[in-house]
């Protein structure tokens, strides 16, 4: 028998919940009580998805649901780290096999923000110099990769390294699930589970508050939104008035930063903004703090308007550039399509492909999403030709604490069958940065071009001091690239399209089915790499042995053709 929660969902909410619940059920292991997903040919336990499945069970209310929910919660809580003096206090390991991060080696309070930055930056400089010495010694050339792997392993065994030995952001996602289980299911759960959830939530909040107040590891906007909600929710639950006061002051500062440019740090990122918007809806729906709800409403409306500015209904995608992104195709790695489907309704927006991020829907449907009336048409009615311009302050998580919010400019050009975007001013070392993006319509779908960088062995990693200065205008993008990292890197344009057997790539022209690109380049000789039937890379190698290859300039002219 379905629960009252399920019965109260809209038609669209039920569809989203059912799709996610069915997927998670297929990947749930009743022996371990975890959801396991396939990643690069391996089965990987996912504690976050496990908690989403627990929420789905609660909402669907199937027979013996709470018996399974309790087992999942106990299994997830067993992975939490209780280490009050460590930077990773209250976080959750991904699996029972994952080791606990090294303890007793890093005093985050004494090290401080600048110590963290210089340790991180100096480590990159040392490893770059070490790499050069290895590659320059002919006796060690065949062992370079193994020696570097040993050095890296030694570092990770000695000190905790964020996102390598522990994941801080997953804490908020799990706490959101805890909160909803306690909100809707406390009368159904055992006293033992209720006590355990409270204990785990308090530990997690202690670690999360230390993180946000110290800024030792900066928070992305989506984590900030969840952090504010959780401060308010658990502040009320645990009678911690200081937490609730902190939620309001934190939200005020967050909104002040937003108001400067009318933009979040992860500007024009559907992957991040989808979570931002759904979490702000939780504050509107559940908070009893009226000032906090008003702050959330202003931020929510603003983000919707920012997203509407760069959205192209004709292509069902956002025009680039992206400060943070994974795949360009919105059907692969964002819950934003699900949110549009839920908020606009199936009659207006029936398209909601199930993506990697759709697994969050058992949590999302317990919140609320509200699109401002003045921007609804921007998501439904195809736009005519537009030139876009928006400035924003990014977040460089690994940057100098005094200079980790560079002022960036996103420019774009939208037409019904071709759109381009470029970024300037960024100092973000993240490999998620997409400073140049092109979409064009083909007969069989969309073609895309994106600018990225990697090490010569293909590894995507965070690299300081590679700078992009681009501008998109009508039919044109200019892009200057400065490589200042002391490492060989590959700058490449990755093209995904249909019928790539018909391409023609020269120094001055790129011809794809449906798109011609005139290229003026001051850059090294390119290499053409075929990744698969639909993906190629045009690679421009930047080498420390060739100073001229450390700066590049591109001038692209685009012309849409028949596919």
Q: Could you explain how this protein is built, in words?
A:
Helix content is 39%, strand content 21%. It starts with a helix and ends with a strand. Helix 2 packs across helix 3 and helix 3 (47-60) packs parallel to helix 7. The longest helix has 29 residues, at 108-136. It is built from 14 helices and 19 strands. By secondary structure, the protein is α+β, with helices and mostly antiparallel strands. It has an eight-stranded antiparallel beta sheet, with no helix packed on it. It has a six-stranded antiparallel beta sheet with strand order 11-12-19-16-15-14, with no helix packed on it. It has helices spanning 4-8, 11-26, 47-60, 65-77, 108-136, 144-158, 170-185, 191-214, 221-237, 241-261, 270-286, 290-310, 336-344, 361-364, and strands spanning 28-29, 34-39, 42-46, 311-312, 317-318, 386-393, 407-414, 418-424, 436-442, 445-454, 466-473, 476-483, 489-496, 504-505, 509-512, 515-522, 527-532, 535-542, 551-560.
